[in-house]
Specification:
Length: 121
């Protein structure tokens, strides 16, 4: 059974790419074309879950969490989902919509430090 980018999630991944929220658009403009030194993909899936951005070279998933992720139920689901994907050796970094929208430069600096650390190991 295929684990990553399963065919049955293709239409949902495409829809997510078409309907990206503002914070994801900002993040994608910074990540695309290897601008931070690694190739990122948008809406990459593992098992039945989709992550916002993924760099396979360093096994890094970047998630942008909006208001819908603040409820206890969503936090529990996110933790479950992340733990399941982490069994594949994937590391996660999370930012909120507001962090990306209001402090994109700081977010990118933090992300670049994480990428550099991961590439060095």
């Amino acid at each position: 059974m295929r684990i990553a980018n399963r065919e049955e999630l293709l239409s949902r991944r495409r829809q997510n790419r078409r309907d990206m929220p503002l914070a994801e658009k900002i993040m994608w403009s910074a990540l695309r074309n290897d601008r931070l030194g690694v190739k990122f993909r948008r809406q990459h899936s593992f098992f039945n879950f989709i992550v916002d951005f993924y760099a396979s070279e360093i096994k890094l998933a970047v998630e942008i969490d909006g208001l819908s992720h603040e409820s206890d139920q969503e936090k529990n689901y996110d933790a479950y989902r992340q733990a399941k994907i982490e069994t594949l050796g994937v590391r996660f970094v999370r930012f909120t919509n507001q962090e990306v929208i209001n402090d994109a430069g700081i977010v990118m600096e933090r992300l670049l430090r994480i990428i550099d650390e991961m590439k060095a190991t």
